[in-house]
Amino acid sequence: MRKLFLVRHGQSQWNLENRFTGWQDVDITALGQLEAERAGQILKEEKVDVAFTSKLIRAQHTLKIILNEMGKTNTPIIINEALNERAYGMLEGLNKAETAKKYGAEQVHIWRRSFDIAPPGGESLKDTYDRVIPYFENFIQPQLQQHKNVLLVAHGNSLRALIMYLEHLSPEEILKREIATGEPLTYIFDDQMNAVKLGRVIAETNNTVPI
Fold first, then answer.
1. CA-to-CA distance for 158 and 92, rounded, in angstroms?
2. Contact, 175 vs 168, CB < 8 A?
3. Residue 61 among the catalytic residues
């Protein structure tokens, strides 16, 4: 049995300020650090053989806190920009509410929640999918095939792209999926590399509940 643990980074400063972040290198807040610590506590009894993360500090910082809480600071870490958040182009750094006033709420909703329409100078979710999935297939999946457990700490949209792939979701289905910061998701793979989602682990009871 092999497991893949997915964690969205803890709350970032621009999450707190309701700003489009994308590829901007913004660190996590004090709350984000607590979320990362809690994720590490939830995963504490799990075996992790290798960890992957993006080139952005908020994901790397979250991963280091998680591994520290798990007592697994010697775990190999692989960093690659293919796992970065979706690029928001000209919207990066802008307050989301102010952007809706400037461009219209409907247009901003289209940029944020359509599958294949990108904001000016940025990426659509489809663009993000098209870089995340080849990286998963070429670098992460081989680790799982070797019966290794993998921890992946990334971002809302890069994880959304991977979840779409793992769960065979349609564009309409994945756009409805919300991914909370600092909440581990666990997938178990069979010998044919089919993924089964276990649910969210509750640290206090070690039971699973539906997501």
1. 16
2. no
3. no
Q: Where are the domains of the chain?
A: 2-198
Marked catalytic residue, from 35, 61, 69, 85: 85
pTM of the shown model? 0.91
CA 180 to each of CA 21, 35, 86, 157: distance values in angstroms, whole numbers, following the listed order: 16, 10, 16, 11
Class of domain 2-198: alpha beta
The string of pLDDT tens digits covering residues 84-129 is 999 999 999 999 999 999 899 999 989 988 999 999 999 999 999 9
Distance CA 143, CA 128 (A): 22
Q: Which of 206, 147, 150, 136 has its CA nearest to residue 5?
A: 150
Catalytic residue check, 147 = no
C-alpha distance from residue 45 to each of 30, 48, 144, 154 (Å): 25, 9, 19, 21
CA distance 14 to 4: 28
